[in-house]
Amino acid sequence: MNLLNDFFAWLEHFSSSPWFYLIIFTIAVADSVIPIVPSETLVIIGGVSAGSGHLSIALVVLVAAAGAFIGDNMSYLIGRQASERILKRYTRNEKSQQRLEKVIHQIEQRGGMLLITARFIPGGRTILTLTCGITRRDHRWFVGWIIAAASIWALYASLLGFIGGKTFQDDHTKAFLFAFGGAVSATLLIEVVRFVRKRIRV
Questions:
Q1: What tens digit of pLDDT does each residue of 64-89 get?
Q2: For residues 128 and 108, what is the distance between their CA atoms, to the nearest angstrom?
Q3: Interatomic CA distance for residues 146 and 77, integer angstroms
């Protein structure tokens, strides 16, 4: 337990620096293109630090949303750049063609809301933003929904950490664990809802 407390004490000190804003922004950009980068975790940590009085919650939300917005657009443009090569590969046989058509249909029917919900699914945001680029969805349409998705995601993660930081100002270990626990629970709930809806359709 002492080791855990020492780790969270170091984390508190690390996240109290103004440089942490730049770290949040950079990781949020990278996470949209390389889904193994833990951007949500850093945004939550920034929120906890803001709740403890070290950072500004408004700036944490702003840099997280800005990083997510830029990263998602980068992913879209990468998909668009590789569109012709990928489409040729998928149209070589009927099965791949049907799979691609199914994805396009899903985006056409629920594209906007999918972009929002995908923000909360590990790896989902990258797959969907790439697919929007590959299928050459209208960029203005994409930008409008990504503004909403990035803003909602940044608010959610930041405020979750902020509430933890405010609730447990004198115990930073509990503050971080509370915020991370909330994030994991929300992700699991989304996955359960997706699984149930998929089963109902079948």
A1: 999 999 999 999 998 888 777 766 66
A2: 12
A3: 13
35 Cβ contact list (under 8 Å, min separation 6):
122, 123, 125, 126
Distance CA 22, CA 108 (A): 35
The number of beta carbons lying within 10 Å of the beta carbon of residue 26 is 16
Q: What does the angle CA 177 – CA 120 – CA 102 come to, to the nearest 5 degrees?
A: 155
Residue 132 amino acid letter: C
Amino acid present at 111: G
Q: Select from 135, 162, 133 the least CA-distant residue to 146.
A: 133
From 169, 198, 147, 183, select the one nearest 48 (Cα to Cα): 169
Q: Dihedral sign, CA of 182, 183, 188, 191? A: positive
Closest Cα to residue 158, out of 67, 32, 57, 39?
57
- For 134-174, the DSSP string reads HTT--HHHHHHHHHHHHHHHHHHHHHHHHHHHHHTTT-HHH
pTM for the structure as a whole: 0.77
Res 164: pLDDT: 75
Burial 165-182 (b: 16+ CB within 10 A, else e): bbebeeebbebbebbbeb
**pLDDT of amino acid 31:** 87
